[in-house]
Amino acid sequence: MRIDGLTKAATAASAAAPKIAELRKAGEGIEAMFVRQLLGEMQKGTKLFGEGQAGSVYGDLFNEALAKQVASRGAFGIADMMEKQGAPRLIAEAMKK
After folding, report:
1. pLDDT over 50 at 23, yes or no
2. What is the largest CA-CA distance in the chain?
3. Is the entire prediction scored with pTM above 0.90?
């Protein structure tokens, strides 16, 4: 009986893996958006990339690239937290099927 339960849990975890990966990717996107906002606020009032439209574009590109890097490394832990909170629910849903 116990082996059947473990087999069912393992099967459910495998079935939920693609949705957990999607959840992780969404969490990284939210983390990148947060970092991008944070960088933008930090750079207000500075002329790091010069003035005018070109400076604004370069600043936005820099913030976007840096935000993606920081998010992919999980520096703020937002994606990790989302995955830890959402994975058990996704596995439980897969076990019901």
Report:
1. yes
2. 70
3. no
